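Weekly modeling sync, notes
Attendees: AB, CL, MP (scribe)

Item 1: holo prediction request
CL wants a bound-state model with heme C before deciding which constructs to order. AB pointed out that an apo prediction alone won't tell us much about the pocket. Agreed to run with the ligand included and paste results into these notes for async review.

Input as submitted:
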Amino acid sequence: MRLLLLLLLMTGCAEAVHPDGYDSPTAHGLELTLQTQDCRTCHGEELDGGTSEVDCDSCHPADWRTDCIFCHGGDDSDDGAPPRQLDGSSDVTASTFPVHAAHTEGELHGPYACTECHVEPEDVLSAGHAFDDTPGRAEVDFRGGISADAIWYEEGCSINYCHGSGIELADQPLSDEPVECGDCHPVAGDPNPVLATLSGEHREHLFHDVDCQECHPTTGDGTDIVQADGHVDGVPTVQMIPEVTQDNGRCTGRCHNENHNNAGW
Ligand code: HEC
Ligand code: HEC
Ligand code: HEC
Ligand code: HEC
Ligand code: HEC
Ligand code: HEC
């Protein structure tokens, strides 16, 4: 009898686990994104109640677990790109990667998917995603992208294909300055083709005033990008003027009055 009373007393007086106002998304949502505590301990491995008996799905829209915007924003777009910071702030300059938008929206190149730089999870419970050993910190993993060997070192990226010349890899410190052709191509837009750091017969052709756009639909005049989708996508986009065709690295046809049959690059 005394034991029952004690039990009743204990449950009656038991303090609520969470502070007042915890049902507000800014309170409990932030604790999830920053992983202040592991919700699964009481709300269950699947976040469907556990010992707390409070199922997260009881208040949220049905698809919240797979709705990337639910946690990553949609501040600027519907697909969650650029993502909102984990601390809820939309002050992009304070982010550890303030140039998300330049990459996910893309002007010089097609828009990059998250997978260029992160493993893309399927839902909130995916391994290595929200519940992992690095609370409040996003993991960078380039292995699924075109800069597969790049390394993120918090002040930039090294061994980086995307910021290189297409041949050499680059070290790219974090900067909010827009990049220009010459940052990656010492020759593009430069009147002196001797500076060419490009492959094979580039130098020869540039000396003879053959322009970039005669072989690359990417650019209109060597200083602009007119086909962003094929640019910085991991492979050179080559489409020669109709007089010359290329197969297996060998050319056929005449150009500028010169026979190119069986010429290699
Ligand atoms: C130590 C156990 C425990 C942990 C850890 C825990 N909860 Fe709870 N939570 C509960 C219990 C129990 C309730 C039921 C209400 C109560 O008793 O306070 C609850 C209720 C809630 C509610 C309903 C609102 C309210 O205040 O009752 C929300 C929202 C919630 N939890 C979110 C979370 C989130 C998000 C996390 C992880 C960041 C989390 N909880 C971690 C035990 C826990
Ligand atoms: C008492 C109702 C309630 C419960 C229970 C609840 N939530 Fe929420 N949560 C909300 C509401 C309301 C929103 C805002 C929804 C919206 O914006 O559509 C929200 C939003 C969130 C967000 C997004 C916050 C943001 O950045 O905008 C996260 C993360 C979140 N909840 C985690 C959890 C987790 C994890 C649980 C279970 C442990 C849980 N919630 C249980 C009411 C609840
Ligand atoms: C070009 C590479 C790149 C792309 C593309 C990219 N990210 Fe990131 N992201 C990063 C880097 C680098 C960081 C900083 C990681 C760190 O702080 O250690 C980061 C950080 C983050 C953060 C934490 C931000 C903060 O400040 O709290 C989130 C969340 C995130 N990324 C999600 C995404 C999502 C979702 C996408 C796709 C819509 C995406 N990222 C696309 C490189 C990228
Ligand atoms: C309930 C909240 C929530 C939802 C929903 C959510 N995420 Fe996340 N996401 C997080 C948190 C928290 C992190 C930071 C992870 C950490 O601490 O390492 C994160 C990090 C990321 C990262 C950076 C890499 C990493 O795992 O750290 C990417 C990319 C990402 N999320 C993409 C997505 C995509 C795509 C979806 C939709 C399928 C999605 N997220 C849905 C909370 C969420
Ligand atoms: C005569 C045709 C031709 C002209 C003119 C030309 N390119 Fe190329 N370019 C090629 C070919 C062919 C490749 C593919 C080489 C390969 O597959 O290895 C290529 C590849 C590239 C690459 C990838 C890296 C490399 O060097 O192989 C870049 C970057 C590039 N070109 C930029 C330019 C720029 C900038 C201009 C103008 C300044 C230009 N190209 C002019 C034919 C040309
Ligand atoms: C951030 C680095 C970077 C910047 C800035 C850049 N490029 Fe490139 N560019 C590359 C890389 C890497 C390649 C290698 C091929 C690929 O992946 O598409 C390339 C390839 C090219 C090619 C070969 C055709 C192709 O699409 O593959 C041309 C032409 C070219 N760039 C012109 C330009 C011009 C003109 C500008 C300025 C408006 C410019 N690039 C700015 C990195 C850059």
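Recorded for review: The radius of gyration is 27 Å.
Action items: CL to compare against the apo run; MP to circulate these notes.
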